[in-house]
Protein: ABC transporter related
Amino acid sequence: MKKVPEERKGSTSSFQPPAFGPGPAPGRGPGHRFSAKSAKPKDLKNTLRRLWKYFGEFKLLLFGIFLVILISSFIQIVSPLLIQKAIDQYIIPRKLDGLFKIVLAMIILYILNSIFAYIQGYGMMIVSQRAVFKMRNDLFSKLQRIPIKIFDTRAHGDLMSRLTNDIDVVSNTLSASLTSIFSSIITLAGSIAVMLSLSPVLTILTLLVVPLMFGLTNLIANTTRKLFSQNQKLLGSLNSVIEEDITGQKVIKVFTREKNEIEKFERVNRELTQVGIRAQIFSGIIPPLMNLLNNLAFIIVAASGGFLALKGFITVGTIASFIQYARQFTRPLNELANQFNQIQSAFASAERVFEIMDEEEEKHAEDEIEIDSLKGEVEFKNVWFSYNKGQPVLKDISFHVKPGQMVALVGPTGSGKTTIVNLLSRFYDIDSGQILIDGIDIRKISRESLRKNLGIVLQDTYLFSEPVKENIRYGRLSATDDEVVMAAKTANAHEFIRHLPHGYDTVLTDGGADLSQGQRQLLALARAILSDPAILILDEATSNIDTRTEKLVQSAMLKLMQGRTSFVIAHRLSTIRNADLILVINNGQVVEQGTHEELLQKRGFYYNLYMSQFAVV
Ligand SMILES: Nc1ncnc2c1ncn2[C@@H]1O[C@H](COP(=O)(O)OP(=O)(O)OP(=O)(O)O)[C@@H](O)[C@H]1O
Structure:
């Protein structure tokens, strides 16, 4: 049995270890100039609207940041004018005291500018961290509401990556890029306006380098973007090799495939390195190229400015301030080009987050009822079910279980036993037919109250990285320590817990990996005992349990089953023999049902199954 999530209340689907990060977030690392991801947002308007839902909560703060950006951009724009004034009014006429004042003014302005830059960075960081805090919380609580189907069909690593890496990209990029884009646009517009007022001719000459700058940058950016995207894909492959290597260590060791794994890793690693180097080389062309073009603009301004000054059209101070403007003007241009790609990848990441937020939640019927306690009568009436449309896994299943009966589900692997209990717990809803509990269609019962009355104990129990006693208490959060110990005693778990280093306070690691499978099952049984469900679903262990523990598990299971309706995915002959009803499942159908004796007498499917599996025993 495999697809039923954890013990009762269906809340502990075991997560795989995280992928090892999707590589550097755009904006970090040397290749950040062109976002490493080539991903583009699919529906920008919608994404922006939804992001505003998170960021818009801080309107006042954002307005303040915008004001600070305005002021610092203004300083940026007027500073070169002071240089002009200094040269034309004080240096050339040799008025030293005036020069001193203007230098002081410039120092003050530049210091103020740095302070404002800090304030805007700080403010934006606060806004984005708070917005992202809410987004992360929303996504996590959404995960608790989406159906098990999503966890069954999506890679767990991918889901985790959306919660961590993608949200990180949104937060880091948006906070850095938004302020930078704001200030770039204002500085750019302001600088052009002042330049035009100083000398329209010189402005046009300076602007001549802009198309050249854009054309060349774009040309290189296209190649680099492809290389970075390839780099990202290879990083993904490298991550999955590492992930599989760690998860499958036992298999690798047993088959002594360590050498193959190393070779596999080396292959991907080498490819990644080659692509990485090419990407960095290409993107490395950009800064010197920009420098060259900046200097070109400088030469144009100096040469043509000198000519215009000699002819008496402009002053020397104007040339000096123009040189400053030309530099100041190319910087935001570069910045805008850089930010464009990063912002795009932030939007793409935001979309990945919103995609999960848009997943359909478990549906609730309008006339849903809450049930307090159940007698435990269960009936399947002509139930059909398919995981994928058009491929029925359960076909016309019908059976009736009286309260307190023990039902054994038997049948070949893949026949549909797990699916039956998946449906009973409403992890999935049926296509047609009816499942009735105490005569009520389970689609009318709220999932929460239904699951409160169900207990599920799987072969492979998931335990949390918490003390043993808290893991047991998970069955009923209000249970006292004494009740926890009582439950452990009933589940035959008390003895082994006592011998753990810190007894009930021993903190378990990695889903209980430091316990044996049998011990984990005993804890799961204690959990179920504490929750005291009306209907029990048990999956008998097939392997990995020593005979002594197996006996303990068996007897705990028997105690737990007493007085409750129980469904056991049975592997042990003794369980099957004791069952009040055996459902023989084959190929998604109940092919036979009855007690052990009745079914043997039939000499049909069950008889053959029994003879092949147990006759020797
Ligand atoms: N989440 C899923 N999505 C699609 N198909 C699934 C899913 N879970 C199970 N199946 C398919 O449904 C069929 C029944 O599977 P199920 O797990 O119910 O069998 P089972 O009788 O419990 O098998 P086993 O004894 O090996 O645990 C199988 O063919 C399986 O491949």
The beta strands are 378-385, 394-401, 406-410, 432-437, 440-441, 454-457, 535-539, 565-569, 581-586, 589-594. Residues 1-3, 152, 387-388, 393, 411, 413-419 surround adenosine-5'-triphosphate (CB under 6 Å). The longest helix spans residues 258-310.
